[in-house]
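Next up, a specimen:

>
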Amino acid sequence: MTGHPTIPEVTDEDIAWIADTMGLDDLDGDRRAFLKRTGTFDVSACPGSGKTTLVVAKLAILARKWRHPTSGICVLSHTNVAREEIQNRLGHTPVGHRLLHYPHFIDTIHAFANRFLALPYLRSNGFPSPLVDDDVAKAFRWNVLQGQERWNFENWLNNRHTSIDVSVVI
């Protein structure tokens, strides 16, 4: 048995590399301690203080040093906005892009629970897997609206400078 992969150690050289790569000038003691720390911990700070930037920096360092082809890093966020920001920032570098594919997982807590807990449970107990296709659901709902209701809704969306892009028609 090979056991669990060890988390690579983050060195001062790694921190210098990521600071140069991401243009980070203000890596004080607390930020450096965050980048070097392993294990489970919480980071609490005000909005705009650089939490996501530090998470992306740490992930880029780990991606650069990751040598386990069948074991990955799991990053769970509370919101899709945070997930998208992490994925977008990582996706702009070849090193970070590695984390966007198997064996790594970056998504919301909800997506993790669905993919790795709920759906496997349903399948293993003989229940068909529910499938929700956002485009199909949107098209179905859009097609249900008829006449004056649809016209009112379209005008309301236009006044908000928003639209429904429905490319799937049922």
User: Anything to note?
Assistant: The mean pLDDT is 85.
